[in-house]
Design a protein that fits this description.
Length: about 290
């Protein structure tokens, strides 16, 4: 089934001592454009996360965010007492030299000075990482399911538009027959208007007419256009990423429709071609968001 490049997944779960939130956002992009934000404690696993995302989401602009909230009394930071005391003593001397009592707020402000708080980095618990991996997998699966739902809606919309183009193509066939007759009659009338019919070489006239009408013949374009539309529908049924392939087929469909328009030389046929182009423009917009 066809997938959209737009997707979203969010999973929030508690593990021992922590609350983990994983959020994945996906938008359309020609290439695989990945942005990963994880806490520094899990930085060593960033490459592993990137590989997992690439395997699951394939293509698009992907934003991956991981948030960690401590839910117990443990902390990874501690006060560096010697540094704190050194700052305190220096500030006390400064205030004393100015004849000012050191305010209570200054005691708290010392904590913000460099090197007062130091982080304690424990090794990442393998069991904890296994739990986080499961949460990451669930978020990616949610994003993929979102993409699938969007893709199903796009599938039905695109199929309807391709069917419309093929229906308009069937309406061109009877118009084509009348168009050729009208062109022949128009050319003949113009010729009779300016040249004495008795002076016209009928054989040469027929040869030139056949050559002219051959340039206006659209049967080949109609056959190719119908084949491209059928191929488009068949490609939508394929597994995997088909967005780029559908984009190429759309270009071929546009080429044949444009040729039909340039050869039309008939108001009724031009109207049908314009309606085809309208459907094609909407197909192009949708195709940009197909995985």
């Amino acid at each position: 089934m066809m997938y959209s490049m737009t997707g979203y997944g969010r999973v929030v779960k508690d593990i021992p001592g922590k609350k983990i939130t994983i959020e994945v956002k996906a938008l359309n992009s020609k290439q695989f454009d990945l942005s990963v934000r994880v806490p520094s404690y899990y930085r060593e696993k960033e490459l592993e996360i990137r590989n997992k995302i690439a395997q699951k989401l394939f293509r698009g602009k992907i934003d991956f965010s991981m948030y960690v909230e401590l839910i117990d009394e443990k902390t990874n930071s501690s006060i560096n007492e010697p540094v704190y005391k050194a700052y305190y003593q220096q500030l006390s001397r400064v205030y004393e030299s100015m004849g000012i009592n050191m305010p209570h707020e200054a005691v708290a402000e010392i904590l913000r000075l460099p090197d007062v708080l130091s982080a304690v980095h424990d090794e990442l618990d393998p069991e904890e990482w296994k739990e986080i991996e499961k949460i990451v997998g669930e978020a990616l699966e949610q994003c993929n399911q979102y993409r699938l739902q969007e893709g199903e809606a796009m599938y039905h919309d695109l199929k309807g538009r391709i069917d419309t183009i093929q229906q308009l193509l069937t309406e061109i066939a009877p118009v084509e027959q009348n168009r050729i007759k009208q062109i022949k009659t128009r050319i003949r009338n113009k010729l009779d208007e300016f040249i004495d019919p008795e002076k016209v070489d009928e054989n040469r006239f027929e040869q030139e007419l056949v050559h002219f009408l051959d340039k206006l013949d659209v049967n080949e374009e109609m056959v190719r256009l119908d084949n491209h539309c059928s191929y488009f529908l068949k490609t939508m049924e394929e597994e995997g990423a088909v967005g780029k392939k559908l984009g190429f087929i759309t270009q071929e469909i546009g080429r044949e429709i444009n040729t039909l328009g340039s050869k039309a030389n008939d108001a009724q046929m031009q109207k049908l071609v314009v309606r085809m182009k309208d459907q094609l423009e909407k197909i192009k917009e949708q195709a940009l968001n197909i995985l």
